[in-house]
Amino acid sequence: MDRIFSNRMALVIGGSGGIGKAVAKALANEGAQIYIHGGHSKDRLERTLREVQQIQTAQGLPLEQQHHQTLLLPITGVDSVKIVLETVPKVDILVYAFGPFLRKDLSQMTAEDWNMLTTMNLALPGALVSSYLEPMLRQNWGRILLFGGTNTDTIRGFTSTTAYSAAKTGLGVLAKSVARIGGAANVTCNVLCPGMTDTEYLDEAARRYAKGKAPGGTLLHCEEIAETALAILKNPHQNGTMVPIDRGLVI
């Protein structure tokens, strides 16, 4: 049985774990073939691949008819874009679920901190969007989902995450620009801004901090984020939006 994303190829940057993995599995459940990117762990990447394959095998799609692939690539800067594009030259769906985080007082931020955070969280997804946009426009179909940070769905002030939050907020300009260019060609781009989310990347100290900030002391689950992500990707009318999913959290 055809599903909404049958025969669509999705590239999920940061898809081997956490929120990215949950989104990759949700897309596979809707028929997409997934190119799963992971930065460091081959074991984690291959485990995610097996889970994605199992989803479609259970739906009756034989393994030999599945075309999921993996890309193990530590993302170190915009030079990584060239490798991604050489490996995956065309996609129907782009999900960018990656971006280093740094908590540091604004007065202590170095030029290197600013360069790293803005490159990884804004310039790199921007370069990928620029590269994949034209083929999407030509085929009259494309879906782009970028992940912002907590409370970065609008312009706010931040005392200890200024560079990270500025870059993530800037994704809104990117999304609205794609919407303006691609709306008539059925190409959408949106930004999802999760609140405090429980992932395998949190150590106990980080988990305690997140629970202390989260409304009700309850963290979001990756699968809850993925449900919202899937709803956005399915909706051809939602374009250029920044969507918080944070239970009303204000940092």
Please outline what is shown here.
The chain has 251 residues and is of the alpha/beta class. The protein has helices at 18-29, 42-58, 79-87, 111-139, 162-182, 204-213, 222-234; strands spanning 9-13, 33-38, 69-72, 93-96, 142-147, 187-194, 197-198, 220-221, 242-245.
List keywords for this structure.
251 residues; 7-stranded parallel beta sheet; Rossmann fold
Describe, in plain words, how this protein is organized in 3D.
With 251 residues, this protein is of the alpha/beta class. The protein has a single domain (9-243), classed as Rossmann fold, CATH 3.40.50. It contains 7 helices and 9 strands, in the order βαβαβαβαβαββαβαβ. The strands form 2 sheets. It has a 7-stranded parallel sheet, with helices on both faces. Strands 7-8 form a two-stranded parallel ribbon. Helix 1 (18-29) links the parallel strand 1 and strand 2 (33-38). Helix 1 packs parallel to helix 2, helix 1 (18-29) packs across helix 7 and helix 4 packs parallel to helix 5 (162-182).
